[in-house]
Structure formats: structure tokens, C-alpha cells
Design a protein that fits this description.
With 90 residues, this protein is mainly alpha-helical. The chain has one domain. Helix content is 68%, strand content 0%.
Length: 90
């Protein structure tokens, strides 16, 4: 809604806030959208590690797009963050 301005003024920071709430509740669409926001730097600074972490929860081919921008160390960090998140929320 806020990301694309559907019915409300477009506001990337507000979109990140709502995507994060959805993502933290385990909603796959919210996790994917939050990962995209980190990848594109919309409402948050570009952060490929955070993008990978959230997109990996969606487990789509889009993960390969993010991986191409990352070092092996960043991928390892993202995987560790994803594992930590799953342990806390499952």
C-alpha cells in the first residue's frame, strides 16, 4: 500500500515499517517485500545481507539476484541471521 501509493501517499519508510511487522509475524509476502526494500534501498539503506536474510525466507529464485551482489562472507552472515531468526520465531 505505502510502497506503491495505493490509497495513501507513497512512503517507503512507512512501507518498511509495515513490511517488517508482517515479516516478523512470519508472513512470507512481508518477508519478501522487506527483502526487496533492503535490496533497492527504499526506506532503508541498501543492505544485501538483510535483503538475503529476508528473501531467503521466501525461498524463491529471487535469492540468486541478491547473491550475485554479495561476497561469500556476506552470504554466510545472512544465513546466520536467517537461522537465528527462525530459531527465535519457530
Amino acid at each position: 500500500m505505502y510502497r506503491d501509493g495505493y490509497g495513501v501517499p507513497k512512503n517507503d519508510a512507512e512501507a518498511v515499517k509495515w513490511h517488517r511487522r508482517a515479516a516478523e509475524q512470519g508472513l512470507v509476502e512481508g518477508q519478501f517485500n522487506l527483502g526487496v526494500m533492503y535490496y533497492e534501498g527504499r526506506g532503508v539503506p541498501v543492505n544485501n545481507v538483510r535483503s538475503y536474510m529476508w528473501v531467503s525466507k521466501d525461498a524463491t529464485e529471487n535469492l540468486d539476484v541478491v547473491k550475485k551482489q554479495m561476497t561469500p562472507a556476506q552470504i554466510g552472515e545472512a544465513q546466520a541471521l536467517a537461522s537465528e531468526w527462525w530459531e527465535k520465531h519457530n
